[in-house]
């Protein structure tokens, strides 16, 4: 497998630490985020093994799979409240109203000026969706 590693200085809640992230190239998922104190990072770099750290693992079921993306465009319901447009759009997709998109996930914050638009007096939503497939598919 191929991937990328990032090592950076980070500060969170007045806590300084070294952050290490590992990203799977194929799935484009950053699946490991590690936090280690400067002191323990120094020990690690000088050859000491088994130093303490904190880490989070996520979306490991997608590692080694290929990410494919698509754009989903659909009509918004008539009379929807503009302030709730993001929630309404996500509910439409998450509740399966858009048949034929099984296994797809919303990968869009809907903050783009192009996420919601009007054409011929009909309101539309455009969002990015993604799914991960086995490499042999």
Protein model, in words:
With 137 residues, the protein is mainly beta. The protein has two domains: 3-62; 66-133. 13% of the residues lie in helices and 44% in strands. The strands form two sheets. The protein has a four-stranded antiparallel beta sheet with strand order 1-2-3-4. Strands 5, 6, 7 and 8 form a four-stranded antiparallel beta sheet that branches. Strand 7 (116-119) and strand 8 form a beta hairpin. It starts with a strand and ends with a strand.
Strands, helices and their partners?
Elements: E1 3-12, E2 15-24, E3 29-36, H1 38-45, E4 54-57, E5 66-75, H2 85-94, E6 105-106, E7 116-119, E8 122-133
Antiparallel strand pairs: 1-2, 2-3, 3-4, 5-8, 6-8, 7-8
């Amino acid at each position: 497998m191929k991937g990328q590693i990032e090592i950076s200085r980070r500060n969170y809640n007045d806590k300084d630490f070294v952050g290490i992230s590992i990203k799977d190239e194929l799935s484009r998922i950053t699946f490991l985020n590690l936090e280690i104190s400067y002191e323990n990072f120094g020990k690690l770099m000088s050859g000491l093994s088994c130093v303490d750290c904190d880490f989070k693992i996520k979306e490991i079921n997608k590692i080694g799979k290929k990410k494919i993306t698509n754009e989903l465009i659909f009509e918004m319901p008539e009379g929807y409240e503009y302030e709730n447009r993001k929630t309404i759009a996500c509910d439409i997709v998450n509740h399966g109203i858009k048949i034929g998109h099984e296994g797809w996930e919303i990968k869009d914050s809907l903050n783009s000026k192009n996420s919601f638009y009007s054409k011929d007096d009909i309101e539309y939503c455009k969002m990015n969706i993604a799914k991960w497939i086995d490499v042999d598919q």
